Structure formats: structure tokens, C-alpha cells
Amino acid sequence: MKDIQYEIKLRPTVVDDLKTLFEFQLDPEANHLAAFTSKDSANKEAYIKKFTRLLADPTVNNQTIMAGTVIAGSVAKFIMDGDAEITYWIDKPFWRKGVATAALKDFLAIETTRPIFGRVAFDNLGSQKVLEKCGFVRIGTDKGFANARQTEIEEFIYRLDH
Questions:
Q1: 64 near 76, Cβ under 8 Å?
Q2: Which pTM does this prediction carry?
Q3: Is 35 left (phi over 0), alpha (psi -120 to 50) or beta?
Q4: I want to staple 120 with a disulfide (CB 3.0 to 4.6 A). Which of 30, 100, 127, 144 is the partner?
Q5: Which helix H or strand E contains 108, and what residues bound it?
Q6: Would you tell me the crossing angle of helices 125-133 and 99-110 to the nearest 10 degrees?
């Protein structure tokens, strides 16, 4: 892992964080890599409404990733079809600096639900490496419609048991 030049900390996400986190997911390259975004990801009002609702959901664990005093991204656990899944989003200036790996490792220490799953687009090599460095094992594939790409693509399914 590359040296991180700032301390990475997690803290519970608050409504005020959502404006910053919304801006991160507008980046075209990040959107393409994430692939499985909401249909209206450019609609700030819909984003704020959706994530404000999720912050109040006791089955969701939303954490904001801080790099020193700057918001660098988010990481969360949510339930989909009865399974615990993780998701994370890192602001582009923090890519390839070990931030996602450090944040996910810290998150998995506080979010102890197991098994926990991660899904990633077949061509999102950076995110695949993050999951693998954190102990996730690729267990299968699926296909789904990727809103950010407006086509069906393959995604890899990862699982962490411990």
C-alpha cells in the first residue's frame, strides 16, 4: 500500500456531509467505474432525500471517511435481498493512495456483520484490489443493468466471512 500522507478516520455520516458526497459522485470517471448508480444520480434533491432516509435506517451503517480534516469519501453497510453488503466511494484526489483500503479495514473493524458482500464492476480493478486486500474472496459473477453506462454489464461478487 502506498503511504498515506494524512490520518484516515471514520465518523458517522451526518446530513451536512451529503452535499459534499453528492459532488463526488458527479465525476464522470468515478461514475463509470461505479457503474451501478441510481437512475437520477445527477439530481441533488433526490440524492439528499434518499441518503437522509438511509441515515435514519438502523440497518444501514453510514460512515464518512476523513483524510485529516477533509471529507475523502464514504463507506456503508446496507441490506439487499437479505444480505449485508458494503459500498464505498472515494473522492478522485484520494484514489491510488491507500485511502479506500485503510477506510474499509477500519470500517470492517466496527461493522462486524458477517458474511458481508461486495459487488464491483468487472473492469473496476482498483476496487477489486481494495476488496481483496481487506480479505474479501471473489465467489461469483452476476449481470445487471449499470445506470452509469446505460447497458448490462458483468459484476464480480465478493464475500468476507471473518
A1: no
A2: 0.93
A3: left
A4: 127
A5: helix 99-110
A6: 40
